[in-house]
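User: Hi! I'm working on a homework problem where we have to compare a predicted structure to a textbook description. Could you give me the structure for the chain below?
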Amino acid sequence: MSMTLAPSQTIADLLPQAVERHGERVALRHRIAEGWRDIDYAELAENVRAIALGFVDLGVAPGDRVAILANTRPEWTYADLAITAAAAVVVPVYPTNSIEECEWVLRDSGAVAVICEDASQVAKVQAARAQLPRLKTIFAIDKAPGAIGLAELIERGGRRDPAELDRRTHGVVSADPYTFIYTSGTTGPPKGCVLTHGNFRAVLDAVRAHDLLAKRDDLTYLYLPLAHALALIMQLATLEAGGAIAYFDGDTQQIPAELAEVSPTFLPSVPRIFEKVYAAVTRDIGPMVLRDATRIGSAVEDLRLHGLPVPPELRDAYDQFDELLFKRVRAAFGGRLRLAITGAAPIAPETLELSS
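Assistant: Happy to help. Predicted structure tokens:
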């Protein structure tokens, strides 16, 4: 494989370059009936290319807005990268949005197509269809009445010349819009923030420079909604680095159990998950013991972080608390966690200290 490619300049060329560098490595993991299925970079690229050609056949033009109304899952990633490869603009929509909220985002963005997860999401769009004059096509990841399925979309893409898609992908420049991210609308209707390929490329470069992203050997556990910029950045950063993404199974109540099962090395999250882990591992630990354990643990980790020796008496105390508590924390996250990032809401200092 070529390892001398120039750095990615847009989000459109991110996947082709990742495939050149990491083609046989695992890119995505998701649960199926028999367990967890791995998808390598080469297969990811084939799926994305097939879907993108389907968009081309159905008339999605460069610059058109295509919405995604689905939970975090592999097909969200396929759709995102396929829209981008076709030189169109990704418009994420939160799957929890009401009919009225979906209507607003689709109408305000001028979306010509929307990719829905299932029949329930298709129903929201159909209920608002009369107010969406620019919307031409509804797709569905899971089979749904009144929507084009992924199999048909891929079949239609087989009619197109792949060179047409290559021309579109190579024609994307940094100033072109990559995505419209909509705000929560707490001060009125959601506002669409236009983010260019250059904007996202700069963010990826900036956070990587501060060592806050996944690395080549990382397994990222992703449950955050991809309609949010943080999850979108984590997804793209993992793929660019050659790491793998393990998607949650769709049930937020099962996240703690899945963390222990999947054993991720990188976890972008919100405070709630760390709070659940904190409550679970400290349920039978008294407050005084917890205070001392946190103090000793923080002191040892600070010394290690600065490359300083740990005094024997401090190490002995640490080993006792490790047996009592710290190993529980590691096990709760699967035992391999290298880096976790939290945001979007305040987190209690004691939760942060114990989790780290």
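For your comparison, note the following. The chain is about 45% helix and 15% strand. Confidence is low (pLDDT under 50) at residues 1-5. Good luck with the assignment!
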